[in-house]
Amino acid sequence: MEFRFSKSVGTLTSSAVRDILKLTQGQEIISFAGGLPAEELFPLEAVRAAADRVFALGHKTLQYGVTEGHVPLREQLCVRMAAKSMDVHPEQMLLTTGSQQAIDLVARVLTEPGDVVLVESPTYLASLQVFRMYGLRVVSVDSDAHGMLIDEAERLMQTLNPRLVYVVPTFGNPTGRTWSTERRKGLVALSQRYGVPVIEDDPYGDIRFDEQLQVPTLMSMQPTVDGGGVIYLGSFSKTVAPALRTGWAIADREVVRMMAKAKQAADLHSSMLDQQTLDQLLQVFPLDDHIRHVSSAYASRMQAMQKELESRGRGDLSWQEPLGGMFLWLELPEALDAQTLLRAAVLKGVAFVPGTSFFAEKPKRNTARLNFTHTGGERMRQGIARLFEAMDEFLARC
Amino acid sequence: MEFRFSKSVGTLTSSAVRDILKLTQGQEIISFAGGLPAEELFPLEAVRAAADRVFALGHKTLQYGVTEGHVPLREQLCVRMAAKSMDVHPEQMLLTTGSQQAIDLVARVLTEPGDVVLVESPTYLASLQVFRMYGLRVVSVDSDAHGMLIDEAERLMQTLNPRLVYVVPTFGNPTGRTWSTERRKGLVALSQRYGVPVIEDDPYGDIRFDEQLQVPTLMSMQPTVDGGGVIYLGSFSKTVAPALRTGWAIADREVVRMMAKAKQAADLHSSMLDQQTLDQLLQVFPLDDHIRHVSSAYASRMQAMQKELESRGRGDLSWQEPLGGMFLWLELPEALDAQTLLRAAVLKGVAFVPGTSFFAEKPKRNTARLNFTHTGGERMRQGIARLFEAMDEFLARC
């Protein structure tokens, strides 16, 4: 049979990151490509004990659950959100299969094909995939070290009538960038003024390298969740473990209700074993201490990678030191196309993600994203050495 | 902010079943409404031990996984599929968050809004929700006790150029109906002749009340998976436990590749804890013995409910005895609208699902779906008694 695939899925390119990961499976390649947390820091014993407490609750724990997600976990998350100055009711929250699913559900309920969505430049790759699959027109707003340029965003709101804005304002992916408070306020105000909902994707916000640093979420800048245009997305993937695939979306309760309707059709509900395990974990495990521990380890890895890059003394390499998160965003010499460099690098045994795929429009070809959380120590140094080897050879040929 | 919701999600009614479940939560209502397996039969200790073996494998078990699903579980499932005369390669299989997600992904990759999808009359409620969300035109094909009427299906293929067919041919939901081999062959032939893919949704196929009964899957009637139009969906929800939210789709590998691309955007991947736990479970747990045990218990419950219905001797009630699965489909007296009856029944403390919601078109209002797997024994008898009370009062008023 000849299958006729839908136009939308035809436009999807498979994620460059995941394709590279597949390519490198089993080979001796040092990868800075994936957005992987450090396995050795996963609270394995605590998760195991939590799962065991779930099973001890008996047979009913293995039954179907509600689409909106395990109520006790939502209640605990509301308490955690309160500590971030977000006053949230469980009915304003939907548990999802990672925050990736939340992006999908928001696009599903708030857009029609052909609508415009505004994003940062560059932005999270897999959000672009969702928006393209729904046939949206993705327009990128010029951004600098402090976040999206608000004047530019306003101009586009006036001229393009966008249906949605998507941002990662804290320790962003891919740039590691943290928006200034002013830009945050600016976007929240625009959202209200022009009636455009804003997805605030915040998977990295807890991974901050300076404990004293207080970064307000966009959602905390609204008077109330109901009636506000911000849709906040959180995730356990970086603070507990990705395998448990649990994220949460917070929004006006009517938006949550519509997302739940869409989710019911999409998969009925997410894993109840995962949700109940996380609920049990939060009841006894000092998650904030754990997050401090993980963040401090990641800060050291970031510093070490930065030092390694600096020590090799290439004046034509630059980056902005991230205040948290998982990524270093490199600007390479102008002459260097990172996609071509990647092929040379993989031959040397090192991988990264060329920056091109993170741009909705006008890609900067001389950019690369390096993950610093997964590979540390001697192996990281070896990886950077290989990367510079590839770069040197490449530039010598130019 | 005034949210403008997409047209597609506006057309979604929340599942009648799940709304009733919500309604009945915490109240003393005997529910035959949900499609819930019997909790007390879940292999809790085996699942617990399997999860524990997963954790014993170390930190890497909590890391991100591949979109297509845990490879060792796909390999074991291929062996299980071979026992059903389906020769499947792991690359022809995608693991999903329950088979509900597979229905969603198939619709996403194989249809455009406005396309026609053919379904049985009546059919699985939540498939209708998916198709409506994607803006498809759902057309129901007249069906009898042996399945879809093939001549009618052919006529519709010739006139409506459908893009997809969706069926539950074995111990179906809601009717409990099992298609004859002839009808199965007929649909597979039509699928090839007219180039229309067929979703064979088979969550209940293993729950058969007569061990000797051999029911061939549609997929096993194709020469090969690649090039064939059948997309087979299986699930652990009824044979192990729903909380683990794991289903699998089998199809031509190009279809699987496209579904995986769509799934990557939808949620990156399903729970790895669930998938690895099921993999460990299958390695040591005698699942087929367990399925025989569960099926035999369900057969007894079905017989008991049937006896209870018969013993009350209403000649104006009829049903077809199911050969497996989880549902009895009642035809009530003509004068009885099951939606109205439900309200009276809930007041008496019993719930079921009115048949109307399972019809894509031309609903038969005097039909009802009763689940017999979740509530057995004295409680089931009490529930049936309440149902008859409601019916009697209702008919007395007519």
From TrEMBL, chains A, B:
The domain of life is Bacteria
Gene3D superfamilies referenced in this protein's UniProt entry, alphabetically: Aspartate Aminotransferase, domain 1 (3.90.1150.10), Type I PLP-dependent aspartate aminotransferase-like (Major domain) (3.40.640.10)
Keyword Ubl conjugation among UniProt keywords: no
Q: Name one Pfam family in it.
A: Aminotran_1_2
Keyword field:
Aminotransferase, Pyridoxal phosphate, Transferase
- Which residue ranges does the record assign to the Aminotransferase class I/classII large domain? 41-375
CDD domains hit by this protein: AAT_like
Q: What is this protein called?
A: PLP-dependent aminotransferase family protein
SUPFAM superfamilies named among the record's database cross-references:
PLP-dependent transferases (SSF53383)
